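Chapter review: from sequence to fold.
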Amino acid sequence: LLGEALALAEPEECIRTFIDEGPPMARMLAAAAAQGMMPTYVGKLLAIFAAEKAQRQREATADLPSTQPLIEPLSQREREILQLIAQGLSNAEIGERLFLALDTVKGLNRKIFGKLQVQRRTEAVALARELGLVKALLETGKVVPVVDGRYALSETAATMRHVEGTSKARS
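The token string follows.
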């Protein structure tokens, strides 16, 4: 019966007739393909089924809430820059590390601040930590306590302690 329907539908390029029948028809067409029944037409129908299934999955995941509770989510590059800001890098250092021009880093900072609705780097970092947008640096071991509740990157901590000690001695 399916073979007859396919034979009648193929010359007219009837697609929706089969697709609208949903998954049961897809299973029947897969069985027909396995038997070698009208391979070109059946293959085309199965490809359309697959494309529509993928589209439904994309739509379903688009309806899920974002992991970022922002109106406009941060791009991967913006999250990367925000992480570096949280690590205490200057704009110039961020530019060097990511091979970006200083003006590009500054522009991305403005976009990040706008999306987070903040004015300063410290506000951006505090909100990003609160929202879980940046990794806790203490957990990664890349930051260690220095003095007075402040932190530094582990590779510069010894230097920071030395500088802090020197500046306090001068006071």
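Two observations follow directly from the output. The CA atoms of residues 65 and 86 lie 25 Å apart. The beta strands are 143-145, 151-153.
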